[in-house]
Specification:
21% strand, globular, seven-stranded parallel β-sheet
């Protein structure tokens, strides 16, 4: 398979992820190739278990994508999607990554079929369910289920994380207005996040621009703890809030 074909198929998969369902005619127009070529691309994606090919259109294989989540996955969806696409660049094939509970990390999880040989560690029930249908290895931390956030927490969860060496951790937060670091509304998640930070070689914070205007109850880390922050464009005043992060990347929602 040529590199151009593989690249087009990856982009087609991203397009289907974005919309849930997309028509062959639209794909043909967007990628400037024939409908026959698009159908062959869709055949390959279907064989890989990523999509379902229907008459005239294709849709995501896993029905889980359409289910409502307790996390606010529909809020700022385009912004989160752009952040997730950028975050994908920081994932190396055959590496071990951690994804914590949250809507932006869930958005990132949907793109993981584009990578090879990952071991994915998570305490998120939502992410674990999604990743279980992929070809990657999954390590589910277990623990006590916090039903509101669909996250596993507690000493059992923390002890399991301590036994793992994590290459890159992708983490979210509930906001950081007027704080020295990211925050969460869940006291139980503070312990887990802090253990992840200790065990990860690279720490990446993912959050949309709305988090610059919000603050959770508990601060679980300092901005100095993070190697990268990926977010959306914000004002110069808001940039000051995260100046202690080693690298801050701003991505537009339409990227």
């Amino acid at each position: 398979m040529s590199k151009s074909s593989l690249s087009r198929q990856n982009n087609i998969y991203q397009a289907i992820l974005s919309k849930g369902r997309i028509y062959v005619s639209e794909l043909s127009k967007n990628f400037h190739v024939s409908s026959e070529t698009i159908r062959k691309d869709l055949d390959i994606l279907e064989q890989q278990g990523l999509i379902l090919k229907k008459h005239g259109y294709a849709e995501i294989m896993n029905d889980y994508f359409q289910l409502p989540l307790n996390v606010k996955i529909t809020e700022h969806a385009l912004a989160k999607q752009a952040i997730a696409k950028k975050a994908l660049e920081y994932i190396k094939d055959n590496s071990m990554i951690f994804l914590d509970p949250g809507s932006t990390t869930l958005a990132l999880a949907k793109y993981l079929p584009l990578k090879k040989g990952l071991t994915i560690v998570t305490n998120s029930l939502a992410i674990a369910q999604l990743v279980s249908d992929m070809k990657h290895d999954l390590i589910f931390t277990g623990g006590r289920l916090q039903k509101k956030g669909k996250a596993f927490v507690g000493a059992f969860t923390a002890n399991n994380i301590d036994a793992i060496q994590i290459d890159t951790a992708f983490m979210g937060c509930d906001g950081f207005l007027n704080t020295d670091g990211p925050t969460t509304f869940s006291f139980e998640e503070v312990l887990i996040k802090q253990h992840v930070i200790k065990k990860a070689s690279q720490k990446i914070l993912l959050c949309d621009a709305s988090k610059f205007e919000k603050t959770g109850t508990y601060t679980f880390a300092s901005f100095k703890d993070y190697d990268v922050l990926i977010t959306n464009p914000v004002s110069n005043k808001e940039k000051e809030l995260v100046k202690d992060v080693k690298e801050v990347i701003y991505v537009n929602a339409d990227q």
